[in-house]
Amino acid sequence: MHRLSSLLVTLSLLAPQSVSAWYADDFIQVQQDTEKRSEEQREEQRARVRVRENRPTELQSRLNQKKPTVQEKKVSQRQRRKETEIWKSESAPQRRLRDRLNRRASVRTSTAVEKLRADILLAVNREREKVGVPPLKRNLMLQTSAQAYAADMKNRNFFSHESPEGETYRERIQRSGYGTITSENCECRSFSLAFGENLARGQLTAEDVMDDWMASPGHRANILTEHFIDIGIGIDGSHWVQHFGTMETVKR
Question: In this structure, are strands 190-201 and 230-236 parallel, antiparallel, or unpaired?
């Protein structure tokens, strides 16, 4: 406050005309702003009065409502009867029956997929037995990654060892939790990791897909190599996925 006062005094001594003009202009501007705000407030008040005058009362609203004709009443009654018939057709016993049938279909689908997995695993180990290598063991993490990728290829209509986002089969397998050992998190002297993937599309039976895989050198090598000890199988429609892996550690 003291600094402001001394500054104004200094200005009045050095340039009294400019200071007086500044005060006069400021006063005129303040007066104009006040008059403008007052006019805006009066206009706003007049607008509120006009709105209240034009607002219809509840009684007027009811009187202005259009009464339905006889024909419209008949149409409304028919519509209500139709809705009632639809509701009756969806009775509780029928809904329970439909839900039970849907659950059975889901169980049958899961059972069929599980049988296909078992058939493929049996065929794989038969082929491995022929060349004298140990059988593969089913691994739940590999099965999870394989099943997810089979469904992804079917749902998004692509077929490749690399997803549209660029994810590789190794990344997919490790994302399931398999083979995430590193030198930092492994309390062991050494460890070994190996990953593989076989894909197929269009076959209808386990026998067909195994015949096609065994006829392809690369797929056949994945099935018969002794470097893999685990397998997971994914099936969705006519999309087939095999994920192979090895995760071994040597204790210290």
Answer: unpaired
Run of H or E including 197: strand 190-201
Residue 174 has pLDDT above 60, yes or no: yes
Enter the DSSP assignment of 188.
Answer: S
Higher model confidence: residue 82 or residue 144? 144
**Total domain count, the chain:** 1
Which of 22-31, 61-70, 100-109, 191-200 is least confident? Answer: 22-31
H/E run at residue 98? helix 92-130
Q: What CATH number does the domain containing 176 carry?
A: 3.40.33.10
Helices (H), 131-249: 140-156, 169-175, 206-214, 217-224
| Residue 77 maps to a domain | no
Tell me the pTM.
0.57
Are 136 and 121 in contact, with CB atoms under 8 Å apart? Answer: yes
C-alpha closest to that of 149 among 176, 125, 128, 130: 176
Helix axes 206-214, 92-130, angle to 10 degrees: 30
